[in-house]
Amino acid sequence: MNVKPFVAPLAVALVTAGTITASAAGAFAATPSPAASAQSSSASSHPNRTHLGKDATLQQIQAAAASATTARITKLGTAISAVNADRSLSSSDRSALLSTLQGDLSGMQQLQSKIAADGSASQARTDSTTIFRQYRVLAVALPQERIVRVADRASSKALPRLQAVEQRLAGRLTKKPSDDTAAAKAALADLQQQITAVQSDAQGLDAAALAVTPAQFDQSHSVTTDVRSKAKALRTAGKAAQKDIRTIRQALRG
């Protein structure tokens, strides 16, 4: 049996989760945070911030801000298009993601125009800090978008298809006892365990990601630890399931 049409969505959804967890840096909600404006602007707190010396000119500050906002505007536009095109998203998750992404996009566009019109270096510098202190586009909004899409795709598409593959493979092994080797038995048992893991890790992951607020993240970056762990576990389970399927297919081929 060719199980590729069933497994492909799983590979896309769950392997993507590994990329997300590597780049997310532990943040999953992205609207302006009032608390953030009062925080320190140290390099460790703002890894994406462009640091200019105290003697930077108005033009230098404006150029740096233009580069930062343009990069974020471009990425946000891409993310918005991806959300609109993703049919696996629930209507509520799509609405929540678009609200965040479009809000951040509007904020970046307004900041870009304001900084470009600033008449002094001090004002431009103050406005520029808003890009990094109140909006966490790269570290927060974009990872949130990808995590929620992975969770919804795993639940609505990948998991049902994976369950169908397991049932078909189990049925074929039952019909051909000679192919039901020790390796095939072990792979099938593990496949069933991985399906359970995918179901468990995907359940509620979208809601958990969307529930984290900027204020919570400002207080403790560890607030996203559980979300990151589940996204990583999804990838691990998905890769293990694919390995099990390959093992069973090899046994059936004899």
Write down the secondary-structure element order: HHHHHHHHH
What amount of the residues lies in strands?
Answer: under 5%
State the shape.
Answer: elongated
Largest sheet: none
Number of helices: 9
Low-pLDDT runs of 5+ residues are 1-9, 15-48
Rg value:
23 Å
Task: Name the quaternary structure.
Answer: single chain
Mean pLDDT: 83
Roughly how much helix do the residues carry, as a percent range?
over 70%
Distance between the termini: 13 Å
Structural category is mainly alpha
Number of structurally distinct domains: 1
Number of strands: 0
Topology:
Elements lengths: L3 H20 L34 H28 L5 H27 L3 H13 L3 H39 L6 H21 L2 H7 L2 H6 L5 H29 L1
Description:
- This protein is 75% helix and 0% strand.
- The chain is mainly alpha-helical.
- It is elongated, with a radius of gyration of 23 Å.
- 39% of the residues are buried.
